Amino acid sequence: MSEASVVAVGTPQTFRQQLARVLEVEVDEVGWVQSPTAAEELLIDAHHPIDVLVLSPEVKEPDALGLAEFVGRTAPGTAIVLVRDHTWNGLLPAAMRAGIRDVVDMTQGTEELREAVERAIVWATNLRSQTVTRHADASRTTRGQVISVFSSKGGSGKTFVTSNLAVAVAQVTNKDVAVVDLDVDMGDVFTYFGREPTASIQDLMALGEGATSERIREVGAEVAPGVWAFGAPPDPAAEPPAGEAVGKFLRALRGEFAYTVVDASVDYSDSALVCFDLSDTICLVTGLDVVGVKHLAKALDTLLTIGLPRERFRVVLNRADSKVGLDAADVERVMKIQVDAMIPSSRLVPTSLNKGRPVVLDEPSSEVSRAILHLAARFTAEREETPAGEVDAFAAQPDAGRRGRRRGLLGAFSKS
Ligand SMILES: Nc1ncnc2c1ncn2[C@@H]1O[C@H](COP(=O)(O)OP(=O)(O)OP(=O)(O)O)[C@@H](O)[C@H]1O
Ligand SMILES: [Mg+2]
Fold first, then answer.
1. What is the spatial distance between Cα 409 and Cα 35, in angstroms, rounded to a whole number?
2. CA-closest residue to ligand 1 atom 30
3. Coil, strand, or helix at residue 241?
4. Residues pairing with 102 in the sheet
5. Does residue 384 sit in helix, strand or coil?
6. First CA to last CA distance, the chain
7. How is residue 108 annotated by DSSP?
């Protein structure tokens, strides 16, 4: 058992302990990631083959099947065992077709799970000794950076930050940027550019199935120099896309664009959570008021509880010039994360929205634009080796290199 690598996938975190108990090993001999999308990231990054992924009862069936399809394509030597806490009548054939090795009903006791995982380990180790395991998606050599923007309270300026940040990142890095509206019910990223989305959710999700560069840029709309927007008009009748499909869509964009900036929805929907799994930076936007900061602290707690690393988070204080007795230092002390930007309140913001032209394009030297350009320079400093001109000054700031490196999850538990 100590030779094998077994990873528990899905909330709650206690599923890991539960699995370790069932397998009669120490907890740190079992890995854990919070979702199927995080598991896909792990497989892409893995330095050592992963033998078995054991999916918790909280992992939804479409996400499990999507993960199985991904594993079949990129890590065919990894076995999947799906744990359910109900009988799975009808699921087994679909699961087997998708390449899932076993479906185990936990209500039947733990013996069945232990046997299933052991069988899966034997299968994976045999396979590995026969073939060279390919454990990275070789078809994608480049990987852009994903920055998601989230707020726990409506009207905080999330969409304003997302759209202007996308423009600023394109300007600062001189690279192509995707801006994505994942706020499916109320999205208005396009409005900030004076445009209407024309693609459908199906068009967007289909990009996750190996779309060409041409197709990706055709489905997106070039809304500003070097900025392609992806979104669909809200369709109340449509089923929200499965989280795992959203993950594939975002990965397709990440393969095509140097940076992808996402307006995540306000709730903890599947698509928001997947987006956080894939994000290198999660930018939390709040106003500088007690209620806003309280909401934000709660949101951060929730996101840390589901297993996202603290280093990934950044705070943007919007409308931050008001003298309200709270300042950035208070926020940093309460939240234990760095405040990356303070964006002042300005009537240029609503004016530019009415004009359909981002402030960063329309009034580049305004205080608001400078704050956002500054933020863009910090978020991208680590990737851009020789940023040009003014950006150099930003990159040289002591905070610029503080962004945590991508995590090496395997390192935490690998036995090798
Ligand atoms: N720094 C600012 N100065 C002045 N007005 C601002 C500022 N930031 C945002 N606003 C205004 O606040 C309103 C809400 O901003 P925005 O649409 O970005 O919020 P949101 O968080 O995306 O809201 P929702 O929850 O509805 O998606 C907009 O009318 C915008 O013009
Ligand atoms: Mg919005």
1. 13
2. 350
3. coil
4. 81
5. coil
6. 12
7. G
Which residue matches tokens 């779309």? 211
Helix 290-305 × helix 328-335 angle, to 10°? 30
Q: 6 pairs with which residues across the strands?
A: 30, 52
Q: How far is the CA of 367 from the centre of ligand 2 (A)?
A: 22
Q: Of ligand 1's atoms, which has the minimum distance to the CA of residue 350?
A: 31
Most confident of 24-28, 131-135, 163-167: 163-167
> What's the CA-to-centroid distance between 273 and ligand 2, angstroms?
17
Distance CA 317, CA 320 (A): 6
Give CA–CA dist 120/368, Å, rounded.
55
pLDDT of residue 294: 86
What pLDDT score was predicted for residue 134? 44
Task: Over range 359-381, report the average pLDDT.
Answer: 91
pLDDT of the residue at 91:
75
Contact 244, 274 (CB under 8 A): yes
157 φ/ψ sector (left φ>0, alpha ψ -120 to 50, else beta): left
Note the pLDDT tens digit of each residue in 209-254: 989 999 999 999 999 999 999 999 987 777 778 888 999 999 999 9
Q: Determine the residue type at 312.
A: R
Ligand 1: nearest atom to the Cα of 346? 3
55: β partners: 9, 82
Beta bridge partners of 56: none
- Which ligand minimizes its atom distance to the CA of 318? 1
Q: Is pLDDT larger for residue 387 or for residue 119? A: 119
**Closest ligand to the CA of 285:** 1
The set of protein residues with a Cβ atom below 6 angstroms from ligand 1 is 151, 154-160, 183, 186, 266, 318-319, 343, 345-346, 349-350, 353
Q: Which has the closest alpha carbon to 135: 35, 33, 51, 67?
A: 51
Shortest-distance Cα residue to atom 18 of ligand 1: 157
Q: Whose CA is nearest to atom 2 of ligand 1?
A: 345
Least confident window among 18-22, 329-333, 342-346 = 329-333
pLDDT at 3 over 70: no
Which atom of ligand 1 sits closest to the CA of residue 352?
31
Which domains does the chain carry? 6-138 (3.40.50.2300), 145-401 (3.40.50.300)
Task: Give the model's confidence band at 29: pLDDT under 50 very low, under 70 low, under 90 confident, else very high.
Answer: very high
